[in-house]
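Key result, reporting period 2: structure in, sequence out.
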């Protein structure tokens, strides 16, 4: 289950640890559970650096791609390639009540072991989809749904008017949002450093930036 091709062939993904396995059991169909392994067996079977049983195999679900709806907040990931970042973003989405994340096909696989572990069980409540991102965003734009993207020349996040719903696009760790996806963005955002003008790191980690942006969206429209 370590390789994507193997996961696709078998239709299974692996999860390790009591808390994670317990959380996923209510959402995903359990195919096999190994909960009585010796230390030596666990070390040989585990895909983690610090193995902790049990080890479970779950069936990979087939989720219907969501049709963008007005008033609903979505995340869209454009070639986010680090599985740890993806897993953390799923946790962010879960915390802020975002139920669907739509990814470009070349984004990290949510069912990769590192991504699964990084979700800490949040993937039980957040559906991650893979599709032609430009096409999906075009559909959203045609229905009048705002598409937000982060750029260094964007408008200050804390001063920009934000709708209660829409799509927040986050880009690749090194290259940001691709040109094809950028054309679909209707609202450009920037997370400003503090204080303004101070020399800082070149950029924020994509998962950290996602957390900041989602928090601001939800703060604006908290009931």
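The corresponding designed sequence is given below.
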């Amino acid at each position: 289950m370590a390789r994507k091709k193997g996961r696709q062939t078998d239709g299974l993904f692996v999860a390790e640890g009591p808390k994670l396995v317990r959380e996923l059991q209510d959402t995903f169909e359990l195919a096999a559970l190994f909960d009585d392994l010796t230390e030596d067996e666990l070390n040989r079977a585990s895909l983690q650096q610090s193995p902790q049983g049990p080890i479970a195999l779950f069936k990979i679900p087939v989720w219907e791609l969501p049709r963008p709806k007005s008033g609903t907040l979505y995340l869209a990931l454009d070639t986010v390639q680090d599985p740890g970042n993806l897993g953390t973003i799923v946790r962010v989405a879960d915390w802020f009540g975002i139920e669907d994340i739509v990814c470009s096909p070349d984004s990290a696989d949510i069912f990769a072991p590192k991504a699964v572990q990084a979700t800490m069980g949040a993937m039980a409540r957040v559906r991650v989809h893979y599709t032609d991102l430009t096409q999906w965003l075009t559909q959203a734009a045609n229905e009048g749904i705002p598409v937000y993207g982060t750029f260094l020349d964007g408008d200050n996040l804390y001063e920009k008017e934000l709708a209660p719903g829409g799509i927040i696009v986050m880009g690749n760790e090194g290259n940001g949002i691709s040109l094809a996806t950028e054309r679909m963005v209707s609202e450009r955002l920037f997370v400003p450093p503090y204080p303004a003008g101070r020399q800082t790191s070149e950029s924020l980690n994509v998962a950290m930036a996602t957390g900041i942006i989602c928090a601001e969206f939800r703060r604006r429209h908290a009931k």
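The mean pLDDT is 92. The chain has eight helices and nine strands. This case is discussed further under Risks and Mitigation.
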